[in-house]
Amino acid sequence: MLLDINMPVMNGFEFLDALRADPDLVKTVVFILTTSEAGNDVFDSYRRNVAGYLIKSRLGDSFVEAIELIDHYSTFTDREGTWD
């Protein structure tokens, strides 16, 4: 799952908290894709067990590489996108 922190109505952290509280979704693999470079956002994301934190402005030409990384990472998960 790709998730942005800065979403309307429910921000990304609220979404992650709800996701991690659901027993059926707790192991969902989540990558943050955001504009925020704030250290506390990075820390708060990893504290909620995200697999990676990608800053949009830093991706530039390496965006394809980032997507390939996510694709490679997903090969280690089962069909529902969760760890075995």
Description:
The chain has 84 residues and is of the alpha/beta class. The protein is globular. The protein has helices spanning 12-21, 39-47, 56-59, 63-74; strands at residues 2-3, 31-34, 52-55.
- Low-pLDDT parts are none
Percent range for β-strand residues: 5-15%
How would the global form be characterised?
globular
Radius of gyration from CA coordinates: 13 Å
How would you classify the helix and strand content by structural class? alpha/beta
Number of helices: 4
Strand segment tally: 3
Mean pLDDT rating: 83
Write out the strand line-up for the largest beta sheet, numbering strands in chain order: 1-2-3
End-to-end distance: 17 Å
Specify the oligomeric state. Answer: single chain
What order do the SSEs take from the amino end to the carboxyl end, as H and E? EHEHEHH
Instruction: Classify the helix fraction into a percent range.
Output: 40-55%
**Major sheet attributes:** 3 strands, parallel
Q: Secondary-structure map with pairings?
A:
Elements: E1 2-3, H1 12-21, E2 31-34, H2 39-47, E3 52-55, H3 56-59, H4 63-74
Parallel strand pairs: 1-2, 2-3
Features of the shown structure:
alpha/beta; globular
Gist?
This protein has 84 residues and is an alpha/beta fold. It is 42% helix and 12% strand.
